[in-house]
Structures are given as structure tokens and as C-alpha cells.
């Protein structure tokens, strides 16, 4: 399921206008107009979503597979690749797929509710992937994660997952405090997704001992 989601996201991006690879969308102003229309059609617009119109109610699903640029796509897919497989192995393929989609939908809907008057478009799998991170924190807190931190000169260092993920959560929280409803990263959706993932794993697996695979190796990116 994890690799399937990565494949779908990559395919949607490559054939869409955001990648700049499809000649049918043109170049220059034509390409920019095609990208804007693409995001408006498939992304979440909070004001439209909260109007209750049936097409808008489906956009938190479609937005999970749409990304704004190469960095957005690669950062999200790196996190999903690193943390998704182990969470999926623990939950099971079908349960993980449902968890991913539902958490992602709720994260985007939660962001929309807070920014109900916003007409900005929201796209990306960050909310769903943040839910995976939250679940991973509960399920495998002691799993060793190989991380690259810019302020440590990108040296590959291994830390327990709980240190890396709590550090990531704090960064998202600090960034969300200064973020508005305009263009940029939807840090609030990250926080909502992370909380949903952690709470789901706690409710579903509390009292059940979970052991991380001994050979697990992870890396860090930015969703």
C-alpha cells in the first residue's frame, strides 16, 4: 500500500502541469494558468469545502495525491517511504490504507475549518503522512532512525524515533504559530494529522507490545 501510494502520487504529478514535463500544457503563462486551474480543481479550498457542495466534499481525497512542485512531492514521498512500510506492516495493508486516507481527509478538513474564509488552495499528502508519523511514534518509539540535520552539517546520525519525531512535531508547532491562511505550508494540517495518527495508534494498540524490525533504517526529510 505504501509503495502504491508513492507510485500514484508520482504518476499524478508527472502527467499533471505542476511537473512541467507534459508539453500539452504549454509553457510560460499558459503553464502557470494550467497549474492554477489544476490545483483549483483537485485541491481543497476551505471556503468551498465548508459550503457543503458535493464536488468540494471530495477534494480532501483528491488533494492527497496532488503536489505543488518537485520538492513538495519528493519531501512527502521520502517521509512516506521511510515510515510508511513499518506502520503498514504493523497495521495490515487494508487497515493502513483506510487509516491513511481517513486521517489525510480529516487533517485537510480540520485545516479548512480553522481557515473557513480562505480561498487559498491546499494540496499534498502532508496531513496523511503526518498521521503515519504520529502512529509510528506510538508503535515504534525506540526504532533507530538515521537522520540528516542541516545545522549538524548533514552528518548522518542515528537517534531513537521518538527524538526525531518529537523534534519534528515541535518544529511544525512553532511554524504553525506564525503561519496564516495564505500561500505556504499548511503546518496546522501536519499537526492535526500527527495527533490523529498518534491517538489512533494509542486507541487501537495500547496494551499490545510492538517490536520494531531489527534491520530497520530510516532517513529524514520535510513533509
TrEMBL record:
Query: Which keywords fit this entry according to its UniProt record?
Result: Cell inner membrane, Cell membrane, Membrane, Transmembrane, Transmembrane helix
Record localization: Membrane
According to its UniProt record, where is this protein mainly located? membrane
Name the source's superkingdom: Bacteria
> A GO molecular-function term, please?
serine-type endopeptidase activity
One Gene Ontology term, aspect cellular component: membrane
Which ranges carry the Peptidase S54 rhomboid domain? Answer: 61-205
Q: How does it sit in the membrane?
A: Multi-pass membrane protein
The name this protein carries in UniProt is Rhomboid family protein
Q: Which organism is it from?
A: Streptomyces rubrolavendulae
